[in-house]
């Protein structure tokens, strides 16, 4: 890679703008909020008594989420003595504990380090050491992995939760018993100094939360990427990066979405950037309800959950959509409320897209993104009435172009490297200036994908 400026001189001529629907703007305002904390607190006040997250039948309102995340933030500050800018790792599937911890970490002015629960000990050790995480919030199912490496890291505090810990007393006890003793999903572990998530919350309620001064340039996430092609690197995503991408999604799909009335199905893991932005953060800003699916591989169980609710939006990947379409019970569901189906992560196959629209009446809106762009780069227009098989159009306030090996722009229809510039582009890779210089060119251009 060179360090040439791929966007020399005048801004790229955005020829795709004439393909935008009339109700989608060319530019967005990434500074409507100063931080994700401001966005969250605004939503928590406006939609206080509305459901925010649902998991295993348990409903958590925006008010409860605000109270619990505030208590968790206070515990991180006062109970553990952590400071603004400290990194806190999250290692769990989609549970109610996730948004509580997520917004608690952000409200404390700290940086979220999402960790894939299926990591091997080697992968976990690398990410904890590379990020310098001072604490980790982990579900007990994966505590045995942490036990093998925690002494080799800088982690000083382990906060441990069980699958059912945010459910009602009776249901939570039953879930924890079944998970551990019937399904045997909790291998033995030994973490004697671990603090229970419940205890942390109870203690936090009695502590004073001190709201830190958070600005848009502060880091919000270290989101790791590239582990399949080399050593995983932490993409430094600021509050402004995330806010900008949320505004871009809102501008693109806003005509399909209604504040305070949306119900999104979250089967994709929140620790992944796609669901983190498209499901968790977007629908918090919209005041929507979020159905958290803990085990999306259990398709019959997922379909049973879907049958209980009039869901309006769903994100997924090709394999998930295909598995659902092959389930007879899914074919019998009521799709009359569904008005947004978004696919990403991998190409959506033509046959899957055609079967989806035939069954649900909704086209799968395919897009493209990458962790380094928080993640959305391009999407198909919301008014499209066919499966294009493409990554769509660049989202508002985004410049994009294809270049050859010599950094010269290539004509339409020719292969090249897709380069992206916009407010969603990451700050760089954590503690990797050489890798940052290699990928982020002058004026914030980032090579996105080889095509």
From TrEMBL:
Gene3D superfamilies per the UniProt record, alphabetical: 3.40.50.980, Luciferase, Domain 3
One GO MF term: long-chain fatty acid-CoA ligase activity
Keyword Metal-binding among record annotations: no
EC number, UniProt record: 6.2.1.3
SUPFAM superfamilies cross-referenced by the UniProt entry: Acetyl-CoA synthetase-like
Domain annotation AMP-dependent synthetase/ligase: ranges: 40-430
Keywords recorded for this protein, A-Z: Ligase
Similarity comment: family membership: Belongs to the ATP-dependent AMP-binding enzyme family.
Family annotation (PANTHER family): LONG-CHAIN-FATTY-ACID--COA LIGASE
Name of this chain's protein: Long-chain-fatty-acid--CoA ligase
Source organism of the structure: Raoultella planticola (Klebsiella planticola)
Gene from which the chain derives: fadD
């Amino acid at each position: 890679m060179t360090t040439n400026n791929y966007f020399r001189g005048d801004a790229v001529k955005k020829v795709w703008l004439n393909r935008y629907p009339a109700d989608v703007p060319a530019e967005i305002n990434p500074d409507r909020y100063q931080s994700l904390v401001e966005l969250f607190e605004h939503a928590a006040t406006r939609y206080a008594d509305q459901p925010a997250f649902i998991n295993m039948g348990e409903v958590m309102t925006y008010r409860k989420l605000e109270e619990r995340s505030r208590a968790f933030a206070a515990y991180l500050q006062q109970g553990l003595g952590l400071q603004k800018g400290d990194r806190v790792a999250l290692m769990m599937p989609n549970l109610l504990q996730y948004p509580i911890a997520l917004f608690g970490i952000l409200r404390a002015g700290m940086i979220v380090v999402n960790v894939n629960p299926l990591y091997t000990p080697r992968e976990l050790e690398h990410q904890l050491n590379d990020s310098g995480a001072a604490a980790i919030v982990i579900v007990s199912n994966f505590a045995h992995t942490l036990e093998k490496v925690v002494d080799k890291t800088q982690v000083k505090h382990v906060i441990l939760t069980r699958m059912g810990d945010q459910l009602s007393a009776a249901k939570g006890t039953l879930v924890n018993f079944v998970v551990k003793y019937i399904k045997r999903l909790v291998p033995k572990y030994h973490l004697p100094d671990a603090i229970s998530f419940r205890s942390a919350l109870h203690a936090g309620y009695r502590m004073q939360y001190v709201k830190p001064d958070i600005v848009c340039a502060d880091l919000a996430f270290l989101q790791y990427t590239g582990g399949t092609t080399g050593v995983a690197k932490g993409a430094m995503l600021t509050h402004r990066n995330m806010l900008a991408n949320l505004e871009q999604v809102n501008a693109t799909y806003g005509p399909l979405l209604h504040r305070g009335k949306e119900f999104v199905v979250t089967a994709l893991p929140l620790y992944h950037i796609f669901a983190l932005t498209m499901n968790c953060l977007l629908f918090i800003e919209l005041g929507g309800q979020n159905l958290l699916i803990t085990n999306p591989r259990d398709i019959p169980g997922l379909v049973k959950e879907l049958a209980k609710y009039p869901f309006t939006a769903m994100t997924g990947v090709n394999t998930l959509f295909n598995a659902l379409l092959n389930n007879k019970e899914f074919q019998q569901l009521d799709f009359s409320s569904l008005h947004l189906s978004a696919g990403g992560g991998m190409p959506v196959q033509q046959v899957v897209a055609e079967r989806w629209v035939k069954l649900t009446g909704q086209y799968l809106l395919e897009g493209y993104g990458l962790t380094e762009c928080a993640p959305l780069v391009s999407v198909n227009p919301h008014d499209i009435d066919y499966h294009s098989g493409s990554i769509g159009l660049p989202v508002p306030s985004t410049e994009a172009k294809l270049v050859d090996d010599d950094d010269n722009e290539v004509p339409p229809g020719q292969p090249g490297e897709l380069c992206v510039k916009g407010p969603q582009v990451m700050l760089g890779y954590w503690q990797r200036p050489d890798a940052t210089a290699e990928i982020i060119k002058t004026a914030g251009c980032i090579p996105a994908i080889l095509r």
